[in-house]
Description:
Elements: E1 2-4, E2 13-15, E3 44-45, E4 50-54, H1 58-65, E5 81-92, E6 97-108, H2 119-129, E7 133-134, H3 147-157, H4 160-164, H5 195-200, E8 201-215, E9 223-230, E10 239-245
Antiparallel strand pairs: 1-2, 3-7, 4-8, 5-6, 6-8, 8-9, 9-10
Amino acid sequence: TSSTSPKPSPTPYVPRLRYCIYRGMWSQLPENKHNNAPQNPPLYHSDMPTFTTDVRMGKVGELFASSAGHAAKDEQVQGSGGGGPCEAAFWIKEKGTQWRIKGTAFVVGPDIEGENGSSGVRTVKSEVGGRMRLVEGGEGKEGEWSWARELTAHFGNCSPGMRGSWRNPPPGTPVKGEPDQHHQLAQKVTDLDDPIARSNFRVVIIKPDEVEQTDISDPATARRWKYTFVPDAQDGIGEWTKEELWP
């Protein structure tokens, strides 16, 4: 993600990075026998990686502040929205291959299917929904798929201990005395509708524009490929082009 540069600085933004857990492609949550949350029917597939986070973490505010909307106030980043630039890297040691994914990242929050959709909700559904492809035979069944159900399914996909982390004391705040009884470390949450954990839980969706694959498994045949997404104004989806590069 990008963050506003401290003053004085010759550039307006500086990069910020952290480790995140890949949670599968949006609309294609991996099968998990321990996930007892309601699941959407398999109507869509996509090329958009996801990870989960806490709305109180810095990355959420950075994705909002660096987006076209330039949301800066805390109350402006509590719902769905975002759209700031993002880059993710995967190193597959067994294959000697690195993947770099460049694009924009959108945040899905508990307001994603509220009665009065915010501009952030509309942005997420337009930008992310535009890259969700119906599977063969899915035509006419779109109404069976729910954004809120997909969000809950991601919450259920996490372990009780991970869900409990969304009831931790506010991340990054100074330790001053004991936290209140509702915000403690090492809690385990089994209730899919836990009000505190769900209020802090977010799913982040990376909408990629460019992907680079670098294979260095054999130095003698090392290769690099760049995949670029080219939108199609006619079908609204587009396609990926592929170019081979020297590593």
